[in-house]
Amino acid sequence: MSGAASTSARLRPSAPFIMAEPALRLGTDIVDVRSVESSIDRFGRRYLERVYTDAEIAYCCSDASGGAERFAARFAAKEATLKVLRPADWRPEWRHIEVVRQDGGWCEIQLRGPAATLAEEQGIQIVSCSLAHERSYATAVVLGARRTPSPDSLSSDHA
Predict the structure, then answer these.
(1) Signed CA dihedral, 140, 70, 53, 102: sign only
(2) DSSP state, 81?
(3) pLDDT of 96
(4) Residues of the chain with pLDDT under 50
(5) Predicted pLDDT of residue 158
(6) What is the CATH number of the domain that holds 121?
(7) Which domain holds residue 112?
(8) What total of structural domains would you count in the chain?
(9) What pLDDT does 65 receive?
């Protein structure tokens, strides 16, 4: 066998490579603040109540400027959360994904109803989120981790 042929044979895998499901999932999104502001101007409370929870609306409206940047950041976080959850045939309602601002200033994601069920079925726990906004754009990053079974639950010895 020539040198080139033997090298080729060694580099060729014998079976297809199948990547395991990653332990972490990352979702990110960027939103144009003007598009959210336009939706608020055009549809008012109907838009807000379809997308945001009462607590999100109260927090965002507490801003003297009207809160479009805050609403946009929360919309980006909801989209980023969906990228972590990866729904196949249906998408949870926006209000089932809530951005909860903590006293220290950071935010966390709270899943409810079908969004929480979807996360549970996939073994996903939302670990962290980060939101940022300025005059024109808002962005969010959401990190989810797959729950792994404990070594005890993998044991085949059941008494």
Answers:
(1) positive
(2) H
(3) 98
(4) 153-159
(5) 42
(6) 3.90.470.20
(7) 21-147
(8) 1
(9) 76
